[in-house]
Structure formats: structure tokens, C-alpha cells
């Protein structure tokens, strides 16, 4: 690997040399320049080594997104230890599982979750050291303890995937895996010391860890952390930071778009007419979108935005097109925790909202065993592919074969190398006649409706006929329904709502072959349970014949 930085603990060294007094991290009144960031990381690294920890020992970090979370992570890997990021919103049983299974010797934790950890201590006997994040600044400066012999290709991070399948696996990533991924992304996405980012995705997630944390520090950018994930705090932080680069899950962009259209819908008639007029102009003349919607972007906190990247889940076609109309420079990325995580990015100069982009440099993507439509399992190889699953050879051998990572995602590639994801291999529905149905294809058609907020298509056994039915679980856009009620001045009975969604399903079915048609639907009162990156936990609804 070319370049002088080979270890994660050194990822900010170039920035420290070039811009020592430039802002690196900020949350509220707490700020760190690059020089101060390094001082704090070295100080905490020395403290960890003074505890008697040895290279390769596991040490966890858990808490809200903050400079102290970043310092904790960097100090752990700089000491030659293995960082174990923990989702702060995990259930007690999952926290116990992660800390026990990883054999973590200690944890750096936010004071917010200290009481929770103390309640669980009796069930996590391997945790010997608990370091509250507030203690980091109070640690004394001592003589630096030199650490030598850290293997760049040795494990640096152990990440437990929450995923949507219900099976938590521990992914082993090396310094080399993540540094290579950073350097590949660097050749594809330009971020400089002049850029500012607003950290929204939880830092324990690999997408945020690499793209929203380590990569910006590698490039000398500044990272701002909102006080909370409330929309008002996020908006205020984006305005304060004059954010130029935004990395977020699709749900955030969906909320931005929804807020714009709700504001227009509730405004006076002249506002609606003006918005519709400039939308029409922008749709026909793309280069006018930026000046026409400048005020809208400013109110969204995106007045200085140079680049926006959606990842962690699929960006819907309607949201992507709305963002393009508003002149938000959006691109999509695709990857897995197992690939550190980025595999492909949609280039800004040749955007394709239906695709997750092309393979980044040094990564090769292929479609394995494609069917007559060119759809098969997406597989990838490159220096960013994980070492394997921790103490799970069987699971490792299942997905790592001859240097290729079998992603479990189904998709196809066009002649220009753009990758399109069509579904998950494990969620594939196979009919009694042997036909394959990808539920994500049907979900994509239903979600296009303005009345559908979330949807999940699952197989369900009819208790009378014992035949498998295709069932759509629909969570309506209740805000949109309420706005419609107010605009029209009419009440909508339960029967009216049922008929509305029956019509939506019927319209989708009209364009489908018989074996793909949705045979029943169910309206939900609550949002679907999701992972930390807002993917629906499909496994909770996959039991055939069970109403959830």
C-alpha cells in the first residue's frame, strides 16, 4: 500500500503536520484542534497501556457521537488494542453479548450510559476497566509510551453487525482494510481541509466510522456533532458548521424533502403557485435548479453544501429525484461492514439515481451466477475485505470464497459498470411453481405512492388453503393523510383508508405478472422496527403464517 499512514491510530498525523491549529472536532462548546486531538489521543493511549493492557486485547467504546467517542476509538487502536464499537441503543442482552463475546477487557463509555453498564456488570465479568468519557480530559500528561510492532494487517476493529436478519456476527477488520478503503474513497470523493461535516449516523456503524469520521480526519476536514439527534439540533448544527459535506442515511434526506413539501403545502396559495412554477422550470432546465432553490436549501441548513452522500440503506427513487430537483448534489454509496464498508459510489459527474454506483478504485465487483435477466449475487474482492468473522469459521467460509466476499445482495451491472441492487438473497420468495419473487422489487413500486411511508412485502401461508400468499405490510403516511383531510375538509373513515390502499395495491398489480401479484395487504399503525441505520428488521416479520 502506497502512502506513509498504515495504522488507524495515525490517521490524523498528516493533518496534524499540515494544519495543527485547525478545528478538527466540535460539539457544543467543546472543541479540539488537530494538535489538541493528537495530544488527547496520546494521553488516553498511555493511560490504557498503564493499565497493563497488551497488544490485541479488546476494548469497547460506547456513547453518543462526540469528540470523546472519537478520541476513545483512536486511542484504543493507537495502543495496539482492538476497538469494539457498541451501539448505545442496544438492548441489555445485546450489550452483554457483545462485551462478553468480544472478551473486552474494558470500555470507554459516555456518562449517559454508565448507570446502565453498572446494572449489567454482574453479567459481564471480563470487563475490568471502565473509563467515563468525561474523565479523558482530566487524565494527566505523562511521558509518551512507545508502541512498536503493530501489524497493519492485524485486527484493529471488531464490529458486531445488527443487520436485518437477526443474526449478529462479529466482523474483524484490520488497519489495512480500513486504510485501504479510505484511500480508495479519497480517489473518488474529494474532501479537503476546507470542508465541514455534521456527524449524524451513529459512530459505531462502519459507514459513519470510515466515511464520516476517519476519512475526514485523514483529509483535514472539521467534524461537528449535534447535541442530539432531534431535527432542530441537527438543523442548528448544520447551519453553525456551514456544512459542505453531508453523509447520512436515506431517512434523513427523506425527512428533508418531506419538510420542504409540508411547508409548501401549509403555506398560502401564492407560495404554492411559486413553488410549483419553479419546480416546473427546474425539471425542464436543470442548470437553473441551483439558483431557483437557493433559499430552500439555505432554510434546510444546506446553503453551503457541496456534496451529499446517502448510504447504509437504499435511497428511494422519489427522494433522489426530489433532491436532484432541489439541486442537492446527492450520490449513493454501497457496501457492507464486511468490506470496511465502501464497495461502490455513484459519481457526481455521471449520476444515476437508480444505481448504487460503480466500484471504487482497487475494488472489483462481479455478479455471480446471473439468471436470464442478469440478476445474481453481488460479490466483491479487494484489500478492504474483512479478515473474517470472529471465532466463526463456518460463517466465514460461507461468505469468503477464493478471495471473494459473497454479499448476500442480489443485483445486476450494466455495460458501464453501474451496480443495481434488486434484493436480498435470504429474503427471496420462491413460489410453489418455482418462480422467484424479490420482495424489494414490489416494495419499490408501492413506496412510489405519496400515501405510503414504509412497506414490507413478505410471504404468508393462508391458514385455509395452505398456499403461500404475497402480503404487503403498509405503514401509511399519516401526515399526508391528515394534510389531505384538512385541505379537502373531509373526514376519512377506516373504510375510505382501506379503499385508498386497496387501489394502490391494485394499480401496482396491474403491471405485474400473475405469480408476482400482491394477494393481500395489511395497514400498520406503527412504524417498522429498524436497525441503527434505519433498515427495517425484516427477520421479525418473516415467519410464514404469523401476523406481527
Helix fraction by DSSP (H/I, runs of at least 4): 25-40%
Distance between the termini: 50 Å
Low-confidence stretches: 543-548
Residue-averaged pLDDT: 87
Q: Could you tell me the CATH topology label of the domain at 8-150 and 189-247.
A: Rossmann fold
Count all strands and give the number.
26
Shape by Cα distribution:
globular
Radius of gyration: 24 Å
Treating each run of at least 4 consecutive H or I residues as one helix, how many helices?
A: 17
Strand order of the largest sheet: 11-12-13-14-15
The CATH level-2 architecture of the domain at 8-150 and 189-247 is identified as 3-Layer(aba) Sandwich
| Strand content range | 15-25%
CATH class of the domain at 8-150 and 189-247: Alpha Beta
Specify the structural class. alpha/beta
Largest sheet: 5 strands, mixed
- By CATH's scheme, which homologous superfamily of the domain at 8-150 and 189-247 applies? ANL, N-terminal domain
Structural write-up:
- The protein has 548 residues and is of the alpha/beta class.
- Among the domains are: 202 residues, Rossmann fold (3-Layer(aba) Sandwich), CATH 3.40.50.12780; 114 residues, ANL, C-terminal domain (GMP Synthetase, Chain A, domain 3), CATH 3.30.300.
- Helix content is 33%, strand content 22%.
- It contains 17 helices and 26 strands.
- The strands form seven sheets. A five-stranded mixed sheet has the order 11-12-13-14-15, sandwiched between helices. Strands 16, 17, 19, 20 and 21 form a five-stranded antiparallel sheet that branches.
- Strand 13 and strand 14 form a beta hairpin.
- The longest helix is centred in the first third of the chain and has 17 residues.
- The relative contact order is 0.09.
